[in-house]
Design goal:
Number of domains of chain B: 1
Number of domains of chain A: 2
Distance between the termini of chain A: 84 Å
Structural class of chain A: alpha/beta
Largest sheet of chain B: none
Oligomer: heterodimer
Helix content of chain B: over 70%
Number of helices of chain B: 14
CATH topology of chain B: Amino acid/polyamine transporter I
CATH superfamily of chain B: Amino acid/polyamine transporter I
Number of strands of chain A: 13
Shape of chain A: globular
Order of helices and strands of chain A: HEEEHHEEHHEHHHEEEHEEEHHHHEH
CATH architecture of chain B: Up-down Bundle
Chain lengths: ~350, ~350
């Protein structure tokens, strides 16, 4: 009897899977243009049958549909494929700059409410139309949307851009005292072809896109948010940011951002003190400049307000209503400390003599 | 007797699985940012409540507990009310099972198809001996715990413990309502498996019951901590199935949660119906072969009559009433027993 019960329970596990793959068209990437009520949605789908590889063919097909919502647009594509589109494997959703500037709320609402989209799908904003971005030629992969997802993930490791999925982005824009950010990408001409590349960070105010930070500021913002990675270039040296510890304190009177870094230097060990000082000064200067820029935009992308909310909720209640305006004049200090400087695999000549004596 | 064949370990596994039932919903403290703290509090509150249940039942058959102490008429009325409540809870569990699968679009079987499969599994659980059920729980519980802990491990990189701050950001009224909801669905409802399994009958089984209650609360606290630190506020209040959503932040790992849910939910429904079955068999043993299909039908009917959009949230209006009712019976028995004991001493 025990075995019968266990067998019946095991059959219930099949309640989690029940689709014939041959009936599905798997979507790997979605591009959204237009506004709520009249979306133009493109989808990169995997071609399941092998019809021979020609120069314009490949493993994926680009479909286009229009509709009132994203789901409506995707459902309308069935008139082209004859199969329902399966979006649960979608790797990335690209939103055009114009659509992002009109507001991301309708898109997020659909992504989070609809069970056909994974909430772990990565989001990005495109400088051109999403259709153009999605149709661009992949550089190394067969599937462009897979390559875009890899770009975002690897770019985040290098602190070129944030790595945001739908639920993280929603959390950021809905959480009090912090604004959302998304990776920003553009099309570049290379060898006569348009290819995608990461080009910084899209800043949001509420759910509307506000501005774009270039690569240098984007990297600085990632460091200020506590992400390690990428290179810090100073006047005399180049450092790799191996590890970073961010400490953010804030109350109604002011905020303080402290960064502790472990850097790898490509220079002589004899210049240790000078290199450390140069790295600290350079990064402090950059952080202050970026904070000024964010304050001018009234965009608290670092999260000082959120820290006040977390640590001093009673103070936040008074500040919450017009925090963006208050943020513009909010006093913020920055402290950067290089905790350790490591040198790589080789000794410089001078240092070697120092090891063994002259 | 059937229950005498249950070992203390099997009682532990069965009660643990009962408490994990309904685990995916946002009902109760699971849908709050401070849910993990409240689960730990519930784990403490659970101990005296279980002591009360054990004192009242003393290992007697489920149908005898109230009748023996309170008298025939009041005892039977109270037992009948409890049986109705047990059937309603089983129906709720079955409805939630179907809703979860349909809302998350996990298959194309629809509500009725999934309910049919679940009904078959529960029918077997009602027809078998408690010993077989205990052995099945012995196989399922470790797997369920493993899958849940695995889901925590794979999603921990998405956790940011700053998202837990500030503590108790929700209003005290909401926290109290959530705590009452979880109390009604978890702790108060535990009377059914406690009475069915007869865990009040021996010291080893009583200890197993306490261990099951506290370890289930600790596990649920850990899962709520993960959900709150991954989803944060206000996202955790947004999702109808926060545990499923938190696992889904790491691609495809939500299947761990859905697998545990489909394994565990039948035990919750079955243990509720087994209480009613035990009471009916005590009063009318002649009709015992009719009870499983009739009780299942009543449970399916009660589940289908519930309003589906609110099904994932326990009926707020009745939660306090349910808690009070489920505590009142054992409390009355314990008080009457004490009075009788004092009188007999005199």
């Amino acid at each position: 009897m025990k075995k019968m019960i266990l067998c019946s329970l095991m059959t219930l596990l099949f309640c989690g899977c029940g689709r014939d793959a041959a009936q599905l068209t798997v979507v790997t990437g979605i591009g959204v243009d237009g506004q709520a009520g009249e979306y133009q949605v493109g989808a990169e789908v995997i071609r399941l049958t092998e019809g021979g590889q020609d120069s314009q063919g490949g493993q994926s097909v680009y479909l286009r549909g229009t509709g009132i919502t994203i789901t409506d647009s995707i459902n309308n594509m069935v008139s082209m494929t004859g199969r329902s589109l399966y979006c649960n494997h979608t790797q990335v959703i690209i939103v055009s700059r114009e659509t992002a500037e009109n507001g991301m709320d309708p898109i997020l609402e659909e992504l989070l409410r609809g069970t056909q989209y994974p909430i772990s799908v990565r989001l990005a904003v495109s400088g051109e139309t999403a259709a153009q971005t999605l149709r661009a030629k992949p550089v190394v992969s067969d599937l462009h949307s897979v390559e875009l997802e890899d770009m975002i993930r690897e770019g985040a490791k290098q602190c070129l851009t944030p790595d945001m999925d739908a639920s993280s982005f929603y959390q950021q824009i809905a959480a009090p005292g912090i604004e959302g950010v998304l990776p920003f990408m553009v099309l570049e001409e290379r060898d006569g072809e348009a290819v995608c590349s990461l080009d910084g960070t899209a800043l949001f105010k509420g759910d509307r896109m506000l501005a774009v930070l270039d690569e240098r500021d984007s990297r600085c913002l990632m460091w200020m948010q506590g992400k390690a990675g990428g290179s810090l270039v100073t006047e005399h040296a180049v450092f790799e940011v191996m590890d970073l510890e961010q400490s953010l304190s804030a109350d109604k009177d002011g905020g303080k951002l402290s960064l502790k870094l472990v850097l790898k230097a490509s220079d002589s060990e004899e210049n240790r003190e000078a290199l450390i000082a140069e790295a600290e000064n350079t990064l402090e200067r950059r952080c202050r400049s970026l904070i000024k820029q964010l304050q001018k935009l009234e965009c608290d992308a670092v999260g000082f307000g959120n820290r006040i909310y977390q640590k001093h909720p009673d103070q936040w209640a008074a500040l919450e209503k017009d925090w963006p305006r208050r943020f513009a004049d909010y006093p913020i200090s920055v402290e950067v400390k290089v905790d350790n400087l490591i040198w790589g695999r080789i000794w410089s000549d001078g240092a070697q003599e120092g090891r063994y004596g002259s | 007797m059937d229950r005498d064949e249950l070992t203390a370990r099997q009682c532990y596994f069965l009660l643990f699985l009962f408490l994990l039932g309904n685990l995916v919903t946002a009902a109760g403290v699971k849908g709050t940012q401070a849910g993990w703290l409240l689960f730990l509090l519930l784990g403490v509150v659970l101990l005296p409540v279980y002591a009360l249940f054990h004192k009242a039942s003393e290992g007697r058959p489920a149908g005898e507990i109230f009748v023996k102490t309170l008298g025939n008429v009041p005892g039977m009325i109270l037992t009948a009310l409890y049986c109705i409540l047990a059937v309603l809870m089983a129906g709720d569990a079955m409805r939630l099972f179907a809703d979860f699968i349909v809302i998350n679009d996990l298959n194309d079987a629809g509500a009725w198809g999934n309910t049919a499969l679940l009904t078959l599994a529960i029918l077997l659980m009602l027809l078998c001996s408690l010993r077989s059920l205990g052995k099945a729980a012995w196989a399922v519980q470790p797997l369920a715990v493993f899958l849940l802990l695995l889901s925590v491990v794979v999603t921990v990189k998405k956790a940011d413990f700053h998202r837990l701050l500030p503590l108790f950001s929700e209003s005290p009224k909401l926290l109290l309502r959530s705590a009452v909801s979880s109390f009604a669905a978890m702790i108060a409802a535990s009377y059914f498996p406690v009475a069915t399994l007869g865990t009040g009958g021996s010291k080893a089984k009583r200890l197993a019951a306490y261990a099951a209650g506290t370890s289930a609360c600790v596990l649920l606290a850990l899962l709520s901590l993960r959900d709150a630190s991954v989803l944060g506020s206000p996202a955790i209040e947004l999702f109808r199935f926060p545990m499923f959503a938190a696992a889904a932040t790491t691609r495809h790992s939500q299947i761990l949660i859905s697998s545990v849910f489909v394994l565990v939910q039948p035990f919750r429904a079955a243990l509720c119906l087994r209480y009613t079955q035990a009471c009916l068999e005590y009063w009318l043993p002649r009709l015992k072969y009719w009870y499983p299909p009739v009780l299942l039908s009543l449970a399916v009917l009660s589940g289908s009559l519930s309003w589906s959009s609110e099904q994932v949230r326990w009926r707020t209006a009745g939660e306090i009433a349910v808690s009070v009712l489920l505590l009142a019976g054992p409390l009355a028995v314990a008080i009457v027993q004490r009075i009788k004991a004092k009188r007999s001493q005199v």
